[in-house]
Amino acid sequence: MAFPIRTCTSCGEEFELKPDKPGFANRCPSCSEPEDEPGAKVAGPDALGHDPEANAARRRAIRDLLYRGDT
To answer: Is the pLDDT of residue 15 over 70?
Structure first.
């Protein structure tokens, strides 16, 4: 079975589009690899709940939105 030949949108290289290829369907495997930058830190769900002031402000904002009178 022949796989379709695609052209990478990033580098212009031709590649075979295989079913188990990771990444995007319009990029070659070398351009689809994730770029890990040591300085870039993504805040996950665990990092959001540790600040008590932010939690209090978040609760106050939600309470105000839920229980405000529409007058």
So the answer is: yes
